Amino acid sequence: MTTETPAPVAKRVPTERVHHDDIVVDEYAWLAAKDDPETIAYLDAENAWTERRTAHLSGLRTELFEEIRRRTQESDLSVPTRKGGYWYYTRTVEGRQYGVHCRRAVRDGETTPPISADGAPLDGEEILLDGNLLAEGHDFFALGAFDVSPDGRFLAYSTDFSGDERFTLRIKDLVSGELLPDEIPGTFYGTAWSTDASVLFYVTVDEAWRPHRVWRHVIGTAAADDVVVHAEDDERFWVGVELTRSERFILIDIASKLTSEVRVIPADNPTGEPAVIAPRRQGVEYSVEHHGHRFLILHNDGAEDFALAYTSADAPGDWVPMIDHSPGTRLEAVDAFADHLVVTLRSNGLTGLRVVPLDGGDAHDIEFPEPLHTVGLDGNPEYRTDRLRLRYTSLIIPDSVYDYDLATQELTLLRRRPVLPGPDGQPYQPEDYEQQREWALADDGTRVPISLVYRRGTPRDGSAPCVIYGYGSYEASMDPWFSVGRLSLLDRGVIFAVAHIRGGGELGRRWYDHGKMLAKKNTFTDFVACARHLAKAGWTAPDRLVARGGSAGGLLMGAVANLAPDAFTGIVAQVPFVDALNTILDPSLPLTVTEWEEWGNPLADPEVYAYMKSYTPYENVAPLDYPAILAMTSLNDTRVLYHEPAKWIARLRAVAPQGDYLLKTEMEAGHGGPSGRYDSWREEAFINAWILDRFGRA
């Protein structure tokens, strides 16, 4: 007779927390000690337990991984983008984890991008950077910056080999192929070149991982000699840096969740003092794009869903209206070209592009026929152009790249990412699948959209299994997207649904505002309403429904597990923000102070404290009949620290021991999980195998 090894049990070390006369004992706070051998031993034990509990799925995981691999054209080449005298593109090579970044000189008379249908290198190719060579000897690899200088001579790039998103910045001479001695550790995302490529601007973070300084580096000098161009002391604000498409100005973007300020430096005078476009005013957000003699200003000053104005580039001052505010149509971005503007917008829960000619012609929207889709500008680095590069996808249409002729208003499909035949040997046919939108009714009467995709012929009698995905924070919209890995679920009769809940941005700024701060619970009740609607409408049933979300969507997963455990048979929570109150109470942790305008400040406000305590998942674990839970995290995540899901799983086991809870920690990764594409496919296969097991279809 053999006895199965029991699940890991975390030791209990009572730690007291006192705020607003509320005393809380946290028995698992010790797990935040990343350097403690006991912490690592516990995470290792959880990984071993998860491996044992899912060992029977090993064959299915391999099968699902092979399905992703078989459907993917492993040697592939992106549609080249023209910048100056070169076409820039990225190649993938069969068997290699990372992309190869390349360029090829534009040839005489060449106006359309050269296409390589089989992913073969272009004739005359110049390799700028090979991620596979950089990643050798490392378990994790990510690029932060990849920025070619305006004259095409230098490449600024940065690398991260641990997943903590702290990068080392280097500069490569693309003429000689040699690395310059310049090396700058501890940088963040974002760089910008001066006009003559003699100066590079970059960003660093403070101890709380907040991007707070913009630096000026003179090429060929030591990093110790670099100069701080802007230091942001207000802990609510992040900084970023970029070069305008016109290459005339360096933009220093300074923003909190509610307020922004932009400063500019002429790119041909990189040592100049930054000029403020408009001083920050609490609650006013704006972004800047340069166009000729003016700066375009996209803003929400008296315009909930944003409006467009401009001011003088020579002497920024009053804002002159260009596009008035239209309630329900959220203006998200404006891109300036020599002869036209393109406004990215959102209306009725869908993305769109509006072209505004500057020759007096009428503005018009670019039309697409599908009822559910996502469209946006792709790489358009050229300021003077007669065509736009667009990227389009839907739940059933793979990523597609189009050129849009501005004169004829015609779309030309340049390439659709191929989906190779699956296990049955049959080619992928979008018409074999259906997508549609449903609307759930929330507790307060609000209609909440749901996007669904399923294989044609899937029954509508409640017998079909379903995965429902959600996020619902930071005004981030979960727009329709195509997934090769998802096909393995759809072909096994699984429905995939996306709940477009409040806290996201799908239905404009108000949709976001009604799912944050002291209205945050709307996010969770909306998701439960969507789950109940799918069951009531016959799409699925609670014992056939798995919920999935990550990061702030992981907070959602933990909250709905407490709120409606009977609505789901399983929950997948990836890098989940489940210990939200403890994190937001600690201003020394990454992101905390900047997050107070999203969640509220529980340190200063007892009402916020009580409200967050009433929903944060870790605080509200109870002796309930929870669905099975799979929590995924990464040891080096700087956004949602690994100890949040570790503490959550430990408390679930202690308080509701009858449940089935698994914790899987990537010991060499960050917020996005494994970095290599094959490793990412294996992770997706792992999750999908667990989901299918919950449906009894393993």
Can you put this structure into words, describing what you see?
With 698 residues, the protein is α+β, with helices and mostly antiparallel strands. The chain contains 12 helices and 38 strands. An 8-stranded mixed β-sheet has the order 31-32-34-33-35-36-37-38, with helices on both faces. The protein has a 7-stranded antiparallel β-sheet with strand order 8-9-10-11-12-13-14. Strands 3, 4, 5, 6 and 7 form a 5-stranded antiparallel β-sheet that branches. A hairpin with a 2-residue loop joins strand 24 (340-347) and strand 25 (350-357). Helix 2 (58-71) packs across helix 12 (677-694), helix 4 packs parallel to helix 12 (677-694) and helix 6 (521-536) packs across helix 7. It is globular. It starts with 14 loop residues before the first strand and ends with a helix. The model has no long low-confidence stretch (mean pLDDT 96).
Write the layout of secondary structure elements.
Blueprint: E1 15-19, E2 22-26, H1 37-53, H2 58-71, E3 76-77, E4 81-83, E5 86-92, E6 100-105, E7 126-130, H3 131-135, E8 142-148, E9 154-160, E10 167-173, E11 179-193, E12 199-205, E13 211-218, E14 227-231, E15 238-243, E16 249-255, E17 260-266, E18 275-276, E19 286-291, E20 294-299, E21 307-312, E22 320-323, E23 329-336, E24 340-347, E25 350-357, E26 364-365, E27 374-377, E28 387-393, E29 400-405, E30 411-416, E31 433-441, E32 447-455, E33 466-469, H4 484-490, E34 495-499, H5 509-513, H6 521-536, E35 545-550, H7 552-563, E36 570-574, H8 580-584, H9 592-599, H10 606-615, E37 628-634, H11 643-655, E38 661-666, H12 677-694
Parallel strand pairs: 33-34, 33-35, 35-36, 36-37, 37-38
Antiparallel strand pairs: 1-2, 3-5, 4-5, 5-6, 6-7, 8-9, 9-10, 10-11, 11-12, 12-13, 13-14, 15-16, 16-17, 17-18, 19-20, 20-21, 21-22, 23-24, 24-25, 25-26, 27-28, 28-29, 29-30, 31-32, 32-34
Domain Peptidase S9 prolyl oligopeptidase catalytic: 481-696
Organism: Micromonospora fiedleri
Protein name: S9 family peptidase
